[in-house]
Design brief:
Number of strands: 0
Strand content: under 5%
Distance between the termini: 13 Å
Largest sheet: none
Structural class: mainly alpha
Radius of gyration: 18 Å
Shape: elongated
Order of helices and strands: HHHH
């Protein structure tokens, strides 16, 4: 299971870089970050583990940005604010999940991170 994402006041571990692949190589369904070319199982396990950790870290960070954007879009001070249903439709979420993400985003922007805080994902 993935470790919790460090918050703004904690240092983040730097995962392995996710290198972009040339378009022609990425189009090959058998090609994935050059893993298929690694013959040594130890090296393959190490690189695949690095990629797994990098993808998890990227997912956690992207979810935080989604939550902050949802909170900003739902801000009652905005004249063009969106309802949780509108946000859910745009992000392809359920309305209940959108409400949780708005609250999570508000907590992130306030810097709240306590024992009762629950990450919506």
């Amino acid at each position: 299971m993935a470790e919790p994402t460090p918050r703004r006041n904690e240092s983040r571990l730097r995962p392995a870089p996710l290198l972009f692949e040339p378009a022609q190589v990425a189009a090959d369904p058998e090609h994935f970050f050059d893993l298929e070319s690694i013959d040594d199982p130890r090296a393959l396990l190490a690189r695949a583990t690095e990629l797994t950790q990098a993808f998890r870290a990227a997912t956690d960070r992207a979810v935080e940005f989604q939550a902050m954007a949802a909170a900003q879009l739902a801000d009652p001070r905005r004249f063009d604010r969106l309802t949780p249903a509108d946000i859910a439709a745009r992000a392809e979420w359920t309305e209940d999940y959108a409400k949780k993400m708005v609250e999570f985003g508000r907590d992130l922007m306030r810097g709240v991170e306590g024992p009762g805080h629950v990450d919506p994902v």
